[in-house]
Task: inverse folding
């Protein structure tokens, strides 16, 4: 090993260092570079006032802390990165702050600093995804009986609690229901559906909402201002949409964007990092579509291929753009001012009809779903563009109302008159024995005869008399005129359904005294409550004035609407059966094949 003096240049003498300086260096700790802390951890909220997007939860917890109405178990649910664990730590600080139980922990006392640093002995954070077994839960609960060491409460934060086994859930039920007074449970999960109902019923549940893109952009701007990093607002919008409602994901993407763009977050850099589609491609696609220029559409698709852009994301962004155009067409004042392409969207809203945009939106959605079925993504994307070019809304839908009204309708071709004894294919089913040679010849001759006479058996129907609906009454009748009211006919004209209709069809009219109607029914369950009120409202609507209705329970003496309907159906059934049995063709079939008509197979039409 060479001497240390070999590393000193011969031209420059080694600096003289006295013994005091050497001793000072020897006693000092080695110099280390401070590790970089990611933005998601550095800017984690420390109190309720800095928590973003969860005002409804903050309000409830703040009021509970101020009024000392503290529950022993809380459950925070929501997607990843919305603040469940952060909210649990803030609540632990609020419960154990040395200034007292408060909704505004000081953040300066030793307890608050230790909780922020993750060193507080009475805050136990448990990862349920790792400690899933019942033995680990029992060991945890055995220590719960001991008083807290340094704080006011011993707080158990169980993250991803839905990962616990059923045995572990059962083991914690009793302690969760009646814990010691110094214990607080805070459970967090992304999937509350997997938590047993017995656990849910023992907790106060708060559902944390996904972050809105505008809230994410505002928070990112605040952080970047503190970090003294420049960023374009459109770039932050791309990051907020890519985060999909998660603030932690947004901060992680922001970290990546800062590194990718070398300190200045630009829109082009973020688009390149995320593989996002430049909106100008979509605008050019719609412009070519408006001009019906198929060559330009295919050229833009080839250009996107050269840049290796995602066709699935392109179709998704195109659907979003179409939705914005539809919004501009329907509710122009609802367009946010911060949209950078608002003028372009307004221009497209005038170039396309509302029907065009709705049709294009459906085509794009189906094309995106069918990409996995296409031979390759380029083929599926090109086919979707060709569909946009080929399909147009129906021409009748684009005509003005006056043109539609004056458009002549096709004349209805009169169908041949069918005699009353004609039958339909569904009117009767003929059962016959196995056909032998004789039956086969007879069947062939019968078929030939049917063809020669051109009898349309399949389309013939049983002609039955049609009863015209009664004319509606104009006003309530005066007292003493109840006998002249055809109650069964009247109730069929009322706008009632369900039990109210059953009450109307199973009742008879007893009397009319001014605007008071008295009816009687044998069905006691229908004589009170909602059916009576709905029938009264229907009568009031029918007569266009308030009607009072009284229902009595007893044996019905006169004919009801239900009885009349049953009688009419029976008469129609008898007429249909008689028409079938007297039909010459049916009689010939029965005699030729020694067949019989299947009972209950005839239906009037």
Result:
């Amino acid at each position: 090993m060479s001497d240390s003096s070999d590393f000193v240049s011969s031209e420059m003498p080694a600096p003289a260092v006295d013994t005091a300086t050497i001793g000072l260096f020897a006693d000092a700790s080695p110099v280390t570079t401070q590790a970089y802390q990611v933005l998601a951890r550095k800017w984690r909220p420390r109190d309720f006032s800095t928590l973003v997007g969860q005002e409804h939860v903050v309000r409830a917890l703040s009021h509970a802390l101020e009024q000392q109405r503290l529950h022993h178990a809380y459950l925070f649910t929501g997607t990843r990165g919305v603040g469940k664990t952060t909210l649990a730590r803030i609540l632990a600080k609020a419960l154990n702050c040395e200034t007292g139980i408060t909704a505004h922990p000081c953040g300066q006392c030793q307890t608050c600093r230790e909780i922020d640093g993750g060193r507080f002995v009475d805050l136990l954070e448990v990862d349920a995804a790792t400690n899933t077994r019942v033995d680990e839960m029992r060991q945890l609960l055995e220590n719960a009986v001991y008083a807290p060491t340094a704080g006011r409460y011993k707080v158990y934060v169980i993250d991803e609690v839905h990962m616990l086994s059923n045995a572990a859930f059962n083991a914690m039920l009793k302690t969760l229901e009646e814990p010691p007074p110094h214990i607080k449970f805070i459970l967090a999960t992304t999937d509350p559906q997997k938590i047993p109902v017995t656990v849910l019923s023992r907790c106060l549940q708060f559902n944390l909402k996904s972050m809105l893109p505008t809230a994410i952009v505002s928070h990112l701007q605040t952080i970047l201002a503190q970090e003294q990093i420049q960023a374009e607002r459109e770039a932050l919008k791309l990051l907020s949409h890519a985060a999909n409602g998660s603030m932690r994901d947004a901060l992680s993407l922001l970290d990546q964007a800062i590194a990718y763009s070398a300190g200045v977050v630009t829109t082009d850099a973020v688009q390149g990092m995320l593989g996002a589609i430049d909106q100008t491609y979509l605008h050019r696609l719609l412009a070519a579509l408006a001009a019906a220029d198929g060559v330009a559409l295919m050229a833009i698709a080839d250009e996107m291929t050269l840049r290796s852009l995602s066709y699935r994301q392109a179709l998704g962004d195109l659907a979003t753009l179409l939705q914005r155009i539809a919004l501009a067409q329907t509710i122009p004042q609802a367009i946010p001012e911060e949209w950078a392409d608002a003028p372009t969207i307004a221009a497209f809203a005038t170039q396309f009809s509302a029907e065009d945009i709705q049709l294009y939106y459906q085509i794009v959605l189906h094309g995106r779903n069918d990409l996995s079925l296409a031979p390759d993504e380029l083929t599926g994307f090109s086919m979707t563009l060709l569909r946009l070019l080929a399909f147009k809304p129906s021409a009748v839908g684009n005509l003005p109302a006056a043109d539609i009204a004056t458009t002549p309708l096709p004349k209805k071709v009169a169908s041949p008159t069918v005699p009353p004894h004609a039958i339909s294919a569904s009117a009767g089913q003929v059962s016959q024995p196995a056909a032998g040679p004789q039956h086969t010849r007879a069947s062939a001759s019968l078929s030939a005869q049917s063809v020669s006479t051109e009898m349309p058996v399949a389309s013939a129907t049983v002609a039955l008399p049609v009863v015209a609906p009664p004319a509606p009454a104009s006003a309530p009748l005066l007292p003493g005129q109840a006998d002249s009211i055809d109650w069964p006919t009247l109730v069929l004209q009322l706008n009632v359904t369900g039990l109210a209709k059953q009450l109307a069809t199973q009742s008879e009219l007893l009397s009319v005294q001014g605007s008071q109607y008295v009816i009687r029914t044998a069905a006691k369950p229908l004589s009170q409550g909602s059916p009576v009120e709905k029938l009264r409202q229907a009568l009031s609507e029918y007569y266009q004035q308030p009607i009072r209705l009284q229902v009595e329970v007893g044996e019905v003496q006169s004919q009801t609407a239900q009885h009349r309907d049953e009688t009419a159906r029976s008469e129609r059934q008898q007429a249909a059966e008689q028409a079938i049995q007297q039909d010459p063709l049916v009689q010939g079939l029965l005699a030729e094949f020694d067949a019989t008509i299947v009972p209950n197979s005839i239906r009037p039409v």
User: Anything to note?
Assistant: The first helix runs from residue 19 to 27. The beta strands are 73-77, 123-127, 154-159, 183-189, 204-207, 430-431, 507-513, 516-521, 548-553, 596-597.
